[in-house]
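Z., the sequence and structure:
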Amino acid sequence: MLSNDESIRGLVEKCLGVEKVKLDSKGFTLVELLAVLVILGILAGIAIPSVFRLIEKAEADACHVSTAEIDRMYETYLAIESIDHTDMRFSQFLKDHVENTGSNHGEISYVEGRVQCSIHSNAEEHEYEQEDDEEVPFL
């Protein structure tokens, strides 16, 4: 009588149409493992910088939206109260009306009639100016 392993081996050989099947493979070779690691390293080298750029752009966009909202709220406040801007009033307005000023992304200030972030405002201005200068490509 055949053992269980021999009968299984015989069935596999018949189904696959091969004479010998190596069923007791021990694992992967070092070359195979190194090839996989190299491929994963290349993919990570491509993907990680892209993800960081997306995160930075999302933070800058969120900051731009927040400063635009604060700007509208502050201008409305000045118009309703019929008062002029001073740095002291703006600081007090931020304390009274704005919950989170995004202090981890820079300081919010009122410069030349506009609310600006100390980190993202300058970079955004140049970025949006470059986008406006680009022409629509012809198809």
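The radius of gyration is 32 Å. The first helix runs from residue 4 to 16.

Let me know what you think.
H.
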